[in-house]
Amino acid sequence: MAKILKIYPDNPQENLINEVIKTLNNGGLIIYPSDTVYALGCNIFDIKAMEKLAQLKKQKLEKAKFSIICNDLSHLSDFTRPIDTSIFRFLKSHLPGPFTFILDANKNLPLAYKNHKTIGIRVPDHPIPQLIVEKLGHPIASTSIKDDDEIIEYSTDPELIAEKYDHLVDIVIDSGYGDNVASTIVDLTSGEPEIIRQGKGEI
């Protein structure tokens, strides 16, 4: 059964964040809030956790396109090719925020991302994922939680999310109702911003 942790953005309790970190380090899956929708996350360096995440999304890991959640832009050089000054300034002006930026990947990607030529980077404007990444010491893999409902695309109620994923994840962070609009996906690989999916963020 998933453990439900009530952690709120205005005062995230350190002991509860530490429990999340321990779970991630032990290969667990978490559901966490962001500045857009609730999302599934795990340790990017734990291949078994990444495989579980892919299974949950009914995808093969090698074909899965999981974003990498960072707490700032300092991790960019770990995973991406050198970025032009203009692109870096563009990123800096939009992050943290409700965007997923597609960038050219380098050869140092974690094993689960092997052979990926591009990588999606997120820096959510939300203290909980930022704190998790900061305390973990490296980014986490992430994918949005979609709803089976044809009208409401994304689940917003953490209690209903916890009920649905009860036996599939280890921790559900209840941070109150989430948004139902996902991030805007922007491809920066050509050097010019190209919107792949219009979501919450405006370019």
Automatic annotation (TrEMBL):
> Pfam families of this UniProt entry?
Sua5_yciO_yrdC
Q: Which SUPFAM superfamilies match?
A: YrdC/RibB (SSF55821)
Question: What Gene3D superfamilies does UniProt report for this protein, alphabetically?
Answer: DHBP synthase
Specify the YrdC-like domain's residue ranges.
Answer: 14-201
Protein name listed in UniProt: tRNA threonylcarbamoyl adenosine modification protein, Sua5/YciO/YrdC/YwlC family
Record organism = Chryseobacterium taihuense
